[in-house]
Amino acid sequence: MTILKRFTQLFLLFAVFALGIVGGVYYQNEILVYWRSIMILNNSQPTTTPTPTQKPAESRAPTLQMEQLEEPLPLVYSDTLEEQRLQEYLKEGAVVLPLGTAFGEPGNVVITAHSSGNQAFGPYRFAFSKLGEMKEGNEFTLHTSTAVYTYRVYGKEVVWPHEVDKLPNDDRSTVTLVTCWPLWTNFKRLLVHAELINTSYNL
Q: Is the entire prediction scored with pTM above 0.85?
């Protein structure tokens, strides 16, 4: 790496994160991880970002598909709400939180994924980076081993992390897609609410 390139990276690091710190947006941990990725990874052998393993269609591995994604996004079913474990699961795709409701059933299912981040966040760090582009009326599908569920977006909002009361709580079958917002921050949460409109069972 040239001295000029290293200097440019360091300058951008300090400039961007200094503004974030002043605004109370960025966290120390994110700064340290990013610093490590510049100072250590750039001095190591060249590496490429791992790409998701392509699974055969017949496996029917659970995935989320929508127009804003270039390819199906793997779904990982979490058995815990513990933060450290969730962060590990997020490296494998979008995480379905264990809230007691399944796709197609009355109630709300929450699916969360990263919207931005550095290499330490894993290959799916930009999984929900385009979630903000979704609009009311847009549709997406959830593919499981037993069925394909189609959901239609009916609402979108940005809330504080503690505002769990913003999640739907009625008899409809709904899914809420959740990610950190704005991009490159852990400041607020973007919620995209969608309602089930069709179920196609796998025969």
A: no
